[in-house]
Amino acid sequence: MDYFKTAPNFMWGVATAANQVEGGWDEDGKGMSIADCMRYRPKIDTNDYQAVNQMDSHEIELALTDHSTKGWAKRHGVDFYHRYREDIKLLAATGINTYRFSISWARIFPNGDDAQPNQAGLDYYLAVVQELKKYNITPIVTLSHYEMPLNLVLNYDAWFDPQVIGYFNKFAQTVIDYLHDDVKYWIPINEIDSIIRHPFSSAGLVADRFQGQNFEAVIYQAMHHQFLAAAKVVQYCHQRYADLQVGSMITRTMVYPYNSDPQNVLAATETMRDVYAFSDIQVRGRYPQYLLTTLKRKGIPLTISAEDRALLQQNTADFVAFSYYSSICTAADSTGLKVTKANRTAGVYNRYLPESEWGWQIDPVGLRLSLIDLYDRYQKPLFIVENGLGATDTLTADHHVHDQYRIDYLRQHIQQLLISMAEDGIELMGYCMWGPTDMISASSNQMSKRYGLVYVDLDDAGNGTYSRYRKDSYYWYQQLLSYGHQIPVEFLATPVPAVSE
């Protein structure tokens, strides 16, 4: 029998974000975050991410005056805050050895600018880490995953204000100091490139609070401040804790030209340069000339001091983490062409690929191409920290979920990453599928777009028992991990019948 072989230290795991799973939005001293302002709006196309997540001062005032969880999905999540022991035990039984999660900034510093941290928040995350340790599961911690304290929006200019760099780094250093004995892998900012596409959820930027200013310029300056803050995390870890590793993280959507028309090839190349501009800064330690030229052409000034440049150059990421869900095509002229979505971005429909019910095209080979591109570009270890399928799952009367479509998605993508490791020479640290349990969708703020290996009894309106039920995909992932470091090629080559209790 032929096998795919992985290194003994390969990290197989799952991934979540605090604002999508925790709940407990106003408990034990936690402050209000920007995620607590996001509603599920069923009358808006859930694929229109800009409309779903659009936030202005009126929306924030509405959130401030309504203290319920009804309609505010990320305030209740799936109650991981109270059920983390149950959830971790359930997921440990799959055989995972890695768990990526984020820390809510507002649970540690409720207002972002507090003089002292909230001890209850620190103790909660220490308890989560210790629970993972009990099952020999390695934690990977993201420090900022779409959940900055709302006070930094209301009384500062969010990430546009350079003071926020200091507040973030105080938060980061506090958490790192508290958890460093057990947490060796850190990601400062989730999908740092996403600020360009959704500036509120990524950086707390609200357009109407910058009247008379070029909002695009505001976004890019805030982006620069995030890069500085991330570099300071690298600097702090490397100077104080030699055994810690800090990674960059980007959204990696594979981009193809719509056809061989050179204009379309050029359009795809330009789009990919936009993607790489963000990882270049964190991995190579400097702004690519392409991005600087683009900003100059747009008339966008960017304040970068000599000290900033030195900080970025001297404190580069140890590994390159990325999310991968889908791919898109690009065309110089998309008039009359079908548009498709891919993780909060959009492009031209690829007629060679199937699509999910949310319109994301399913492209396993695109993952392999992404691995090749990233490794050839940076020659640094890579880490797939998000990959999964959002779908409407049906819970049967006997509490089963037959999600063969998710099994097929995972099988095909995992097959490609293993082929890439075997044939392309890729140095891959690990793979975390999104996500362990169902959770609130980041892009659409709804529950019915499910990603988990475990079904959570909860609907879009927040009704349900929160009970957990293992899906067929849970047992499939469990079987995959049972093979250890030698996975039979045939297990991934063809669909495998789902296994249930």
UniProtKB/TrEMBL annotation:
Belongs to the glycosyl hydrolase 1 family. Gene3D superfamilies: Glycosidases. It comes from Loigolactobacillus coryniformis subsp. torquens DSM 20004 = KCTC 3535. GO terms for cellular component: cytosol. This is Beta-glucosidase. InterPro entries: GH, GH_1_N_CS, Glyco_hydro_1, Glyco_hydro_1_AS. One of its GO terms (biological process) is carbohydrate catabolic process. Transmembrane segments: none annotated. Pfam families: Glyco_hydro_1 (PF00232). The keyword Kinase does not apply. Coiled coil: none annotated. One of its GO terms (molecular function) is beta-glucosidase activity. Keywords: Glycosidase, Hydrolase.
